[in-house]
Design goal:
The chain is α/β, with parallel strands linked by helices. The chain is about 40% helix and about 20% strand. The chain has 3 domains: about 5-50 and about 155-320, Rossmann fold, CATH 3.40.50; about 55-150, Rossmann fold (3-Layer(aba) Sandwich); about 335-515, Biosynthetic Threonine Deaminase, Domain 3 (Biosynthetic Threonine Deaminase, domain 3), CATH 3.40.1020. It catalyses: L-threonine = 2-oxobutanoate + NH4(+).
């Protein structure tokens, strides 16, 4: 080991004497992942005193200060978890902490900082990003000659983080063949790798970063610390633009491999954690599991290998869960959004829905009638690679090819284009149908000889009942009246509920989507 890594090892030894004054060791749990026979253990840092591992480093750093340094108060910058760790330490050590947080910090995270710190903490909201808040915090600390408690780029802070690895070694479940460590600034990753390599030198330590967050991987490749021009914040706990001055050489020395994961892969890992343990980690907390699942799917891991992942936190904003569920899909299947060209004829959507194999699930439909003889509905389909190959084959038999528009902005933001002036005798209804395979197809088959679908807006919600806003148009008022009568008979059978939107709502729909408003 280098001189720097030996210093880090010593700091972890010292931290063992401090951190348990405010928290207990967190458990190591064996996961039961579907269709994965390899032994996978999760270090459950989400069960710590602040639901994340950051309390370890913050407390160790502040407990190591002199009484005079603590008496003057400390300064920190954080977007969430580190702030809670500093707050917890400030209350326990009876000192003041001024914590700079971005203006965009959710109120729930601010509230948790105040709950842990009470009167010992002052929150200063500054800037639109962590970088801006951090710069302001450093400036304040310099001007007032106060100690800055760094979230990762400090050996004493890293020493505290390394106690989680000590608990893994002491658990008796090792040694592990692969250890996955997520990297933001690199403090926890470096400390974990340092401790693991000391006791299990044969273990392969794998650093995990988000695709658009990989500042450490970039630094390793370039041989120097380099700032990212853009940082994705979906995994906000690891959204760091530049590798740390201390963490960069440590990670370069101690980590064997660096991999990146996509946001979709992270969401699938969060879903896997929920399915196996009914646990919802925050996005960055699931990155290690996402990397394991990626390498397992690529055939890089043997069935007899023993692997360790770290669930580093569970402090996710509740409102983010809807987005995570949509990105994770159904039963771990991939969700793709397919734009399929169809003729402007009655029954066309019904025909193309029948191209979807039974194993796949329609989770989203976006369609509005526009000018032209060819229409372009979008179907969100959750399925396997085999399912998508079947869809492609069945469409090819009809002389059609679907376009994958999963990353198109108008699809992600549900901009359903629509030309109200092209409709004849339209009726807009809200429908409720059983979320069983074929329910919507049964409904369309019952009315398909009378009505043409001119608008459809549906998103799978995970409930037993699906809800959609649907527009139908008719060649005559007589057809419209007959269809209304049929729909009434269907209500409570194929369709559990159906009713027309109010005249005022119908006018708003038509006015909003008319060409003059675009």
């Amino acid at each position: 080991m280098s001189v720097l890594s030996e210093k880090l090892f010593q700091e972890i030894l010292l931290a063992r004497q401090r951190v348990y004054e405010v928290g207990k060791p967190t458990p190591l749990q064996k996961l039961n992942l579907r269709d994965i026979p390899a032994a996978v253990y999760a270090k459950r840092e989400d069960l710590g005193p602040i639901k994340a591992y950051k309390w370890r480093g913050a407390y160790n750093c502040m407990a190591a200060l002199t009484p005079e340094q603590r008496a003057g108060g400390v300064v920190a910058a954080s977007a969430g978890n580190h702030a809670q760790g500093v707050a917890l330490a400030a209350r326990h050590l009876n000192c003041k902490a001024r914590i700079f947080m971005p203006l965009s910090t959710p109120e729930v995270k601010q509230r948790e900082v105040r709950r842990h710190g009470g009167d010992h903490v002052e929150i200063v909201l500054h800037g639109d990003s962590y970088d801006a808040a951090s710069a302001a915090a450093h400036a304040y600390a310099r001007q007032n000659h106060l100690t800055f408690v760094h979230p990762y780029d400090d050996l004493v802070t890293m020493g505290g983080q390394g106690t989680l690895a000590d608990e893994v070694v002491m658990s008796g479940e090792g040694p592990f063949d692969r250890v996955y460590v997520q990297i933001g600034g690199g403090g926890m990753a470096a400390a974990t790798a340092c401790w693991i390599k000391k006791f299990w030198p044969q273990a392969k330590v794998i650093g995990v970063e988000g695709v658009d967050q990989a500042s450490m991987k970039l630094a390793i490749e370039k041989g120097e610390r380099t700032s990212l021009e853009y940082v994705d914040v979906f995994c906000d706990g690891t959204a760091v633009r530049t590798a740390g001055e201390n963490t960069f050489p440590l990670c370069r020395e101690l980590i064997d491999e660096f991999v990146t994961v996509t946001n979709d892969e992270v969401c699938h890992a969060m879903r896997a954690m929920w399915d196996s343990s009914r646990v919802v980690p925050e996005a960055s907390g699931a990155m290690g599991l996402a990397a394991f699942m990626q390498q397992w799917q690529h055939g890089e891991i043997g069935e007899k290998e023993k692997c360790l992942v770290i669930i580093s936190g569970a402090n996710m904003d509740f409102s983010q869960m809807g987005l995570v569920a949509r990105m994770a899909g159904i039963d771990g299947c991939e969700t793709r959004y397919l734009r399929i060209p169809m003729e402007t004829k009655r029954g066309q959507i019904l025909k193309y829905l029948r191209s979807v194999p039974e194993g796949a699930t329609i989770v989203d439909v976006q369609y509005g009638r526009v000018a032209g003889e060819i229409q372009y509905p979008v179907f969100g389909v959750a399925g396997t690679q085999s399912d998508f190959e079947i869809i492609e084959q069945r469409l090819a038999e009809k002389g059609l090819k679907a376009e994958d528009v999963s990353n198109d902005e108008d699809v992600r933001f549900r901009m359903i284009h629509y030309d109200a002036e092209r409709l004849s005798h339209p009726v807009f209804v809200q429908i409720e149908f059983s979320e069983r395979p074929g329910a919507f197809l049964d409904f369309m088959a019952a009315i398909g000889d009378l009505a043409s679908l001119c608008y459809f807006n549906y998103v799978y919600s995970g409930e037993r009942v699906g809800r959609a806003l649907m527009g139908m148009e008719f060649e005559s008022r007589e057809d419209r009246d007959i269809c209304r009568a049929r729909a009434d008979k269907l209500a409570g059978t194929v369709i559990q509920g159906i009713h027309e939107v109010s005249p005022a709502a119908r006018k708003r729909i038509l006015d909003t989507m008319s060409p003059s408003s675009c």
